[in-house]
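Narrative of accomplishments. A recurring question from our advisory board has been how the design workflow behaves on a single, concrete structure rather than in aggregate. To address it, we present the structure tokens for one chain from the evaluation set, followed by the sequence designed for it. No filtering or post-editing was applied between the two.
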């Protein structure tokens, strides 16, 4: 549950600093610490922190190059920031008594809308009014336009919805299952070993899911930017 830590109001608008905002701040601080500490020495034989920082950089750089192309290098800072923010948000949520801000639809929807708006603005900036040709598949019969164009428009506008729900639902579902089996551990008493074993397995699965969902969110961001750059 979202709880207020520092109550703040501007008129009737509640802008309180919450536990969700606190975990976002911690995520940004940890990412900054990792990258600053990992790249400070730039040793020929990298330390563990440097290796993690370099691997993260190379992983996202390769993703951007493969999915957007060489023109996509200008979007690398955006894509890298989104990946690290979502990944750390997911991982922090696995710590007991922590808070998973990526399990709240308002957070994931805000991220998804931001990606959607950036991609749309890039498309307009690069192609102008020709961007609208994106909604009519090349080679399709002209008489099919009244059917295809509305379908393509609805599909395009649904991108932030599907992108946000995918991340939110996976984080919420995994944490809910862990909470349910944790409750069984207490109620079953001496027989609580079995729910504990299941929870350990679920925790290991959640570690994989947190990384996978950060990857999926990022790869879809790259695909949306590729459509904006190349209109296909």
């Amino acid at each position: 549950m979202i709880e207020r830590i520092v109550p703040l109001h501007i008129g009737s608008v509640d802008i309180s600093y919450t536990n969700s905002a606190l975990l976002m701040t911690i995520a940004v601080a940890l990412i900054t610490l990792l990258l600053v500490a990992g790249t400070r020495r730039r040793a020929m034989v990298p330390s563990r922190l440097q290796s993690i920082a370099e691997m993260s950089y190379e992983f996202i750089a390769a993703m951007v190059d493969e999915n957007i192309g060489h023109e996509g290098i200008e979007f690398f800072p955006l894509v890298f920031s989104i990946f690290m923010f979502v990944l750390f948000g997911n991982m922090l949520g696995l710590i007991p008594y922590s808070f998973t801000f990526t399990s709240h639809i308002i957070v994931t929807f805000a991220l998804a809308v931001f990606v959607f708006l950036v991609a749309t603005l890039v498309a307009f900036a690069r192609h102008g009014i020709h961007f609208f040709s994106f909604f009519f598949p090349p080679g399709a019969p002209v008489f099919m336009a009244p059917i295809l164009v509305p379908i393509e428009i609805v599909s395009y506008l649904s991108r932030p919805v599907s992108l946000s729900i995918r991340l939110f639902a996976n984080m919420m579902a995994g944490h809910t299952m862990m909470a349910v089996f944790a409750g069984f551990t207490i109620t079953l008493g001496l027989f609580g070993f079995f729910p504990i074993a299941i929870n350990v397995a679920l925790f290991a699965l959640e570690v994989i899911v947190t990384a996978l969902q950060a990857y999926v969110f990022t790869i879809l961001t790259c695909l949306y930017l590729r459509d904006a750059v190349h209109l296909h």
